Amino acid sequence: MAKLTKKQKEALSKYDASQVYSLEAASSLVKEITLTKFDASVDVDVRLGVDPRKADQMVRGVVALPHGTGKDIKVLVLCTPDKAAEATEAGADYVGLDDYIAKIEGGWTDIDVIITMPNVMAKVGRLGRVLGPRGLMPNPKSGTVTLDVAKAVREVKAGKIDFKVDKFGIIHAGVGKVSFSPEQIEENVKELIMTISKLKPSSSKGTYFKSIHLSSTMSPGIAVDKGSIQGI
Questions:
Q1: What is the DSSP letter of 72?
Q2: Which of 23, 122, 169, 188 is deepest in the core (most CB within 10 A)?
Q3: Backbone dihedral angles phi then psi of residue 50, each to the nearest 5 degrees
């Protein structure tokens, strides 16, 4: 293992793995203990008291982060020619239909979000094998199958993300970059947590929020005190 520099040792000395931090403190600390040369992503892991194997306990939703994700999201719109101009004007990176379907069938997935229309879902459905495992399949629940493709593009570009609980009952989401201010990180996390809170399945018994951890690409996970987030 590479030897820690004096600067890294000093940064990590501010972090105590056995401590639970308020969201405000964690939002500052994650910046202090990340010493990368690149602008690392800030992520939150939320462990829920649900059984995702049960259909009625599947927690899935969308949230518009007030400060966006800090990531340049590459958007592909698969639409009919009459919608192409408005999708492009709204900021889509790629717009088309059959040509892009063929490209994806050939293994191309260099995109972050795909937006499409209900009337072309039959064609897009054939791509499930390629898109499903990568989490790229458009879904009406996440607003990516819609007639208003321009609005969907603008929302995604502004920081709307979709999330869902994995098979271990954990939601992983990117909530910003280390270059964000502590307040921006805190407000983005709060918005996500409040949205997850509203989605609590009625069949879920016991503690809903089991644990919340904040981390960056290159930092240890910081345990967040649930009590420091009002309203959950």
A1: -
A2: 188
A3: -130, 160
- Work out the widest C-alpha separation in the chain, in whole angstroms: 59
3-state secondary structure of 100: helix
- pTM for this model (two decimals): 0.80
Spatial distance between the Cα atoms of 162 and 184, rounded to a whole number of angstroms: 19
Nearest to 176 by CA among 67, 98, 55, 26: 67
Contact 86, 151 (CB under 8 A): no
Residue 227's identity, in one-letter code, is G
Residue 206 DSSP one-character state:
S
Residue 98 CA to residue 199 CA, distance in Å, equals 36
Look at residue 2 in the predicted model and tell me its pLDDT. Answer: 58
To which residue do tokens 């607003």 refer?
143
Confirm if 213 and 42 have CB atoms less than 8 A apart.
no
* The predicted structure's pLDDT at residue 142: 84
Whole-number Å distance between alpha carbons of 200 and 225: 19
Distance (Å, whole) CA 175 – CA 41: 8
Per-residue pLDDT for 1 more than 70?
Answer: no
